[in-house]
Amino acid sequence: MSGQSDSYDISAKHYDAAYAKFAEKQVLVDAPFYLGLARQLGGPVLEIGCGTGRLLLAIARAGIEIEGVDNSSAMLRVLRTHLEAESPEVRGKVKLHEGDMRDFRLRKKYPLVTIPFRPMQHMYTVTDQVSALTTAAAHLQDNGRLAFDVFFPKFEMISAGIGQEMLELEWLVDSKPPKTVRRYFRKESFDKIHQNFSATFLFRTYEGDQLVLEETEPLKMSYYTYPHLRALFLLAGLEPVEEYGSFDKTPLDNNASAMIFVLRKASRSRS
User: Fold this and answer.
1) CATH of the domain spanning 7-152+223-270, picked from 1.10.260.30, 3.40.50.150, 1.10.287.3240, 3.40.350.10
2) Which DSSP category does 162 fall into?
3) What are phi and psi of 117, to 5 degrees?
4) What does each of the 271 residues of the chain score in pLDDT, given as a tens digit?
5) Which of 52, 110, 215, 235 could disulfide-pair with 78, CB 3.0 to 4.6 Å?
6) What are the residue boundaries of the structural domains of the chain, listed by start?
7) Which residue, among 148, 207, 217, 220, has the nearest Cα to 181 in the 3D structure?
8) 112: Cβ–Cβ under 8 A, 6 or more apart, which residues?
9) Phi, psi of 89 (to 5 degrees)
10) Do the Cβ atoms of 99 and 132 come closer than 8 Å?
């Protein structure tokens, strides 16, 4: 009855259904921001950490060429399935690559590179964080822009609730008999020195009140402070052009819910 994974196989299976529920709750509000940048700067766009294509497909449907990179073959398989259902015009706007954001290199420069929906929080060391930003910078045109977002850390919550299961979401599966999937989140530990926490996603599938399948997948996420990020930008040869505390472009201050940056190559890198 149980299944366990140390990859993204299980998350990929449930990803679209889970985040459709977040969209219903108006938790996912990043699409207009990234789509607006793509329209402003034009294509082709490079999206690093494209997952199953939630944002990539929105940009392609707007008629903008976009290339996506992800290190999860499971996520890319789901995205390719989605592409098969799109029109030839949309499919023609998309190219996909499997690669690690720390070291992949494409023989191309882009006016816009994005790392949306927090893939930077899966970089756990300074070396990896600088490598990921350096990869993004290496694909920028001289006047290009890099945009990404991370959580604004809530320090009082990072150490709270260790070992407690929290029901986050549930959704119906179109099957016979009908099933319900419930996603739970359990925080396992936190590391204040290295600024990360470890947790487990639990996906429990029910027929009526009967549990018929439980799947688990580990999660580890880094968190950043503002000075930490500014230091990473310096090390990667980048400088901020815009910074926001929400996707509504509110100030990055004590009321921020996110840290959102639009960057360019630093002046010395462009000279």
Assistant:
1) 3.40.50.150
2) B
3) 65, 35
4) 433 333 588 989 998 888 776 666 656 799 999 999 999 999 999 999 999 999 999 999 999 999 999 999 999 999 999 999 999 999 999 999 999 999 999 999 999 999 999 999 999 999 999 999 999 999 999 999 999 999 999 999 999 999 999 999 999 988 888 999 999 999 999 999 999 999 999 999 999 999 999 999 999 999 999 999 999 999 999 999 999 999 999 999 999 999 999 999 998 766 5
5) 52
6) 7-152+223-270, 155-222
7) 207
8) 37, 38, 41, 42, 43, 45, 46, 144, 145, 146, 147
9) -65, -45
10) no
Q: Which helix (H) or strand (E) holds 80?
A: helix 73-84
* Sequence-ordered list of residues with C-beta below 8 angstroms from that of 245, at least 6 positions apart, any chain: 152, 251, 252, 253, 255, 256, 257, 258, 259, 260
248 three-class SS = coil
